[in-house]
């Protein structure tokens, strides 16, 4: 029997029409979309790329799509039923996708609660990433090349501005984020100085996520989270900020935290900390996982898994066709 993990797509994977095929093919997915409501269904099924790029639209839509694809996967494979597959051996989500993973693991108690949190998070991130005149503060770019070379180029390009490596995606992809002028300088230096061996690809995002620019959002997020209760996970979850399991997450302020304190501390840390995606996948593989299934729009994470651990099986679920293909893994 395969030992499998499920990973949840993050912001940036959104695309027009996402989820419509699953809505038509899977009763379980349909129930998730219906519960999320007509506005989110419209954004997933009908909105154009420009609207979907807006953070306050993207995050609730992608979170819902993640949860719908996960519900469809569980339904198709009979997860947790006598004649179906066992529960996943691990869960993880990329950035926003971590909220879907925490919902699937029971830390967040319901889709409704998850949507409330994601909507609040998206507004805080938008506010933190916007100048008083309404213009965008920061942006992001993918640094294609050796991780140490990308970090060295970040140091050279930073100057007096904010610029950090924020997503450690694979051995050959590290995303940087910061002030627009600093990210542009990083891209220009990558093109001018080929000794670094780095190619910079601007990303179509509305902010410098997981960078210090998001720090102002963390305090308000902490106050919002204090009004919610959270549970211990029922399945192992790997966390963005540490690359390790939720079980091993610690916070010096709370040596013996309650379930709620632990969840809140992680969510506050995650909003402004780098995503340790490569570490997460490597830790999953080291634990014996041999199959990783991405759920949600696109297959970006599936591609990263193949680059990090080419020896394991990686697949994705985003529509009726890919759902049918995943089912064949267990035939």
Strand content: 5-15%
Unreliable sequence segments? none
Largest sheet: 4 strands, parallel
> How much helix, percentage-wise, in residues?
40-55%
Explain what the structure shows.
The structure is a single chain. The protein is of the alpha/beta class and 331 residues long. It has two domains: 4-129 and 215-330, Malonyl-Coenzyme A Acyl Carrier Protein, domain 2 (3-Layer(aba) Sandwich), CATH 3.40.366; 138-205, Alpha-Beta Plaits. It contains 14 helices and eight strands. The protein has helices at 20-25, 27-36, 38-45, 49-52, 55-77, 97-104, 111-128, 147-158, 180-192, 215-225, 259-272, 277-286, 300-308, 320-327, and strands at 4-8, 90-93, 138-144, 163-170, 173-179, 199-202, 291-295, 313-317. It has a four-stranded parallel beta sheet, sandwiched between helices. A four-stranded antiparallel beta sheet has the order 4-5-3-6. Helix 5 packs parallel to helix 6 and helix 5 (55-77) runs parallel beside helix 14. The longest helix is centred in the N-terminal third of the chain and has 23 residues, at 55-77. It starts with a strand and ends with a helix.
What labels describe this entry?
four-stranded parallel β-sheet; single chain; alpha/beta; 331 residues; Malonyl-Coenzyme A Acyl Carrier Protein, domain 2; 14 helices
């Amino acid at each position: 029997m395969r030992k499998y993990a499920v990973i949840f797509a993050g912001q940036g994977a959104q695309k027009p029409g996402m989820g419509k095929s699953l809505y038509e093919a899977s009763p379980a997915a349909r129930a998730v979309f219906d519960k999320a409501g007509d506005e989110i269904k419209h954004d997933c099924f009908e909105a154009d790329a420009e609207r979907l790029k807006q953070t306050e639209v993207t995050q609730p839509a992608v979170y819902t799509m993640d949860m719908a694809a996960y519900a469809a996967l569980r339904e198709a494979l009979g997860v947790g039923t006598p004649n179906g597959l066992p529960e996943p051996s691990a869960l993880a989500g990329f950035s926003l996708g971590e909220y879907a993973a925490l919902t699937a693991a029971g830390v967040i108690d319901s889709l409704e609660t998850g949507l409330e949190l994601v909507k609040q998070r998206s507004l805080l991130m938008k506010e933190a990433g916007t100048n008083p005149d309404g213009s965008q503060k920061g942006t992001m770019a993918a640094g294609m090349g050796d991780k140490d070379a990308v970090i060295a180029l970040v140091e050279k390009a930073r100057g007096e501005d904010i610029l950090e490596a924020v997503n450690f995606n694979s051995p050959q992809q590290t995303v940087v984020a910061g002030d627009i002028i600093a990210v542009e300088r990083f891209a220009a230096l990558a093109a001018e100085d080929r000794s670094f061996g780095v190619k910079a690809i601007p990303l179509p995002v509305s902010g410098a996520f997981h960078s210090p620019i998001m720090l102002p959002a963390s305090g308000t997020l902490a106050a919002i989270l204090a009004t919610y209760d959270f549970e211990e996970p029922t399945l192992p979850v790997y966390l963005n900020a540490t690359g390790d399991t939720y079980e091993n997450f610690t916070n010096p302020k709370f040596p013996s935290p309650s379930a709620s304190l632990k969840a809140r501390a992680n969510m506050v840390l995650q909003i402004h900390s780098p995503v340790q995606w490569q570490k997460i996948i490597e830790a999953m593989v080291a634990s014996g996982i041999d199959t990783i299934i991405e759920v949600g729009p696109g297959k970006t994470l599936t591609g990263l898994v193949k680059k990090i651990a080419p020896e394991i099986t990686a697949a994705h679920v985003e529509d009726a066709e890919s759902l049918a293909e995943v089912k064949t893994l267990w035939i």
